Amino acid sequence: MSFLRRMLAWREANAECRRAARLFAALSAGPLTEVSATLGEPELRHLRHTVFRINALLFLYAKLLRRPHETELGVLLGAITHLLDHAYDHRAGADVASFEEIVMLHRPPDRDQPLQTALATLAARAWRRIAAPALLAPRLHDMLDTQRRSLAQVGPTLDPTPLWELTSDKGFHSLCLYFAAVNERFGAEEAAALRAFGAYLQFMDDLEDLYEDRAEGRQSPVRGVLHGVRQGTVLFRAALRDITAFYRPGRYGVRAFVAWLVLFHLGIMVGALIRELTRRLPPGFQAGLERRQEWLSARVPFFYVAPAGYVPRRL
């Protein structure tokens, strides 16, 4: 890719992140208003991070397929993902099955539950934009089943093998769900090629959430930051091998897709290492690093997707 093409791709990706920021701000001032008041500042930052991450993933997938990308659907799927994860992680004072039924539009929300109300509104908007709802339904069932299994991460210690299988399944089924939401031709052959990529993405999420998971008693496949950096690189190489084998150059825009994955990978790794070096510093110094990160991301919105600096965790 020439220097000019790299610069154009960089500008295009940041322009997409700015579109996502505007739509996320509209959601925050609308259907997310009440639930945002109950989440707290760290959880709100995590929500924003998830929205940008999933929208960017679908933006790159559209580039891979050489098709238009719908930013609003990417933002909606990101917000739904985070709120549903929040319901599973914290139970939200209710049976998690009720949240699944709400996302699938099988039951109305309890109006005195802000989280249920927000999920219902976002899900209704998202389903109207899904390319093939009948194709998506079984993918959603698979993803929700894996989410229920993930509740075992809080409780008796899981052996490394079932813990890794759970991590891999979470990433794989989530990735298939997102891609099937925007590609009506998504099928079993393409899904099989994404197993390693899904496992990699989930492992990267677990690396970023390492200390949050520990504080909340969730078991993680990441044993430590240095282990996460090493293992994440191994998983990244496996994912690239499968991606380039299936999405052949010429038919797909695989070169640009891989280039952005490399940048994403480096951003996560650098962010994790910097956080490890700075997390024991005095609170005032950490607050200054947090302001620097916000300043950088406001000017280069791609860093909301793959932080290249300090990632605050107030635990």
Q: What's the rounded overall pLDDT mean?
A: 84
Largest sheet: none
Mind telling me the C-alpha Rg? Answer: 19 Å
Helix content: over 70%
Instruction: Provide the structure class.
Output: mainly alpha
> Helical stretch count?
14
- β-sheet strand percentage: under 5%
Measured between the Cα atoms of the first and last residue, the distance is 42 Å
N-to-C order of helices and strands: HHHHHHHHHHHHHH
Q: Which regions have little confidence, pLDDT < 50, spanning 5+ residues?
A: 308-315
What does it look like?
The chain has 315 residues and is mainly alpha-helical. 73% of the residues lie in helices and 0% in strands. It contains 14 helices and no strands. It has helices at residues 3-28, 33-39, 41-65, 71-90, 96-103, 114-127, 133-149, 160-182, 188-192, 195-208, 210-215, 225-246, 254-278, 283-299. Helix 1 packs across helix 4 (71-90), helix 3 (41-65) packs antiparallel against helix 13 (254-278) and helix 7 packs antiparallel against helix 8 (160-182). The longest helix has 26 residues, at 3-28. The protein starts with a helix and ends in a 16-residue tail after the last helix. Residues 308-315 have low confidence and may be disordered.
